[in-house]
Write a structure and sequence with these properties.
The protein has helices spanning about 10-40, 50-65, 70-80, 80-100, 105-135, 145-165, 180-200, 210-220, 225-230, 230-255, 260-285, 295-315, 325-330. The protein is mainly alpha-helical.
Length: about 350
């Protein structure tokens, strides 16, 4: 007689949850390690493979957030909050386009430092959200305050390390070089990681299954390459790839999720793919116009404003402590939210 699974519903719930976790770990660690292995020699350009992954992790991932506008309930939610989801994004694009055209390239580099500070903090906010989601999905409860503080502090220290050593960001011009503070940022990063590990170990063993521990540690040590490598590609490219690929996995699962039939889900995925690639190509082209004339620099500024708009929109749509984002994600990916 064939064996019968006594917990068929549990098995069906666990399989996609475990696939999500393994995907996140593989994309995160694979990107960080892969960037180190594929980093070109000093002064050389990235190879075609690394360049394609960076395109996916930067322009395509930013562009894919426009998919939310194709979902009626999300569109209604955003229209009801025009200030955050309409006015702020349009204003960011317009203001940055004007600044891109009007501010000379040298002083504009200082604005880029502020942009990068926001961007890398945004990266760590996503890591924090993924760690919290894993803790909830695997029945370990919400992240504790000390765990959240540790992940956030590690991200702040990693971002500070990049700003103190702007050569890692390949920034020229009149940027402040505070290389002497780079070891301070490294030391504080080590303290944050140690504090986070201590906080995790304070959990009862049952409240820290390996899945939760693995994703928590990946978030905690995310910025480690910044302090290990002098090559911009080895130190930074992996962060960009990991963040973008994490996001694309989440977006793909959300687009394919829900109670709709197979055909609507395939259409939703096709929309996501086309929006990501087509709009991503536009963003990718604009991202290389920083050294052109005023018109080209205006497009480059608009590109930066579009990325900032992505930060603003995502910070609201993925804030799972709010009712609508949590309900939307629970409907699409019920195995991740208890």
């Amino acid at each position: 007689m064939a064996a019968v699974d006594p917990f068929p519903h549990t098995a069906r719930r666990d399989a996609p949850r475990d696939a999500w976790l393994c995907g996140m770990l593989l994309l995160t660690l694979g990107s960080l390690v892969g960037a180190v292995l594929a980093a070109p020699a000093a002064g050389a350009h990235a190879g075609a493979g690394l360049g394609a992954l960076l395109f996916l992790g930067s322009s395509v991932h930013v562009a894919s957030s426009a998919w939310f506008c194709t979902v009626p309930e999300v569109r209604r939610f955003m229209v009801a909050r025009r200030g955050r989801y309409v006015v702020a994004p349009v204003a960011l694009v317009a203001v940055m386009a004007v600044l891109g055209a009007a501010v000379p390239p040298g002083p504009f580099t200082l604005l880029l430092l502020a942009f990068f500070a926001w961007q890398f903090f945004h990266f760590q906010k996503q890591n924090l959200g993924l760690a919290a989601l894993a803790s909830s999905a695997y029945g370990a409860g919400p992240l504790r305050r000390g765990e959240r503080v540790a992940i956030t502090a590690a991200g702040v220290c990693g971002t500070a390390g990049l700003l103190f050593h702007p050569a890692l960001l390949q920034l020229g011009g009149p940027v402040p070089h505070l290389d002497g503070l780079f070891p301070v940022a490294a030391g504080l990063f080590a303290v944050a990681v140690g504090y986070g590990a201590t906080q995790l170990l304070r959990r009862p063993r049952a409240a820290r299954p390996w899945q939760v521990t693995a994703l928590f540690c990946a978030a905690l040590g995310f910025f480690l390459p910044v302090f290990l490598f002098s090559s911009p590609y080895a130190a930074v490219a992996g962060l960009t790839m990991a963040h973008g690929l994490q996001y694309l996995l989440m977006m793909g699962m959300v687009a394919a999720g829900g109670a709709g039939g197979r055909i609507p889900r395939l259409i939703s995925l096709a929309l996501l793919l086309n929006i990501g690639l087509l709009l991503g190509l536009v963003l990718g082209l604009a991202s290389h116009l920083h050294s052109g004339g005023p018109a080209e620099r205006a497009l480059y500024g608009a590109y930066l404003g579009g990325v900032m708009a992505h930060f603003v929109v995502d910070a609201g749509l993925w804030r799972l402590r709010d009712e609508f984002p949590r309900g939307f994600l629970r409907e699409r990916l019920p195995y991740l939210l208890r």
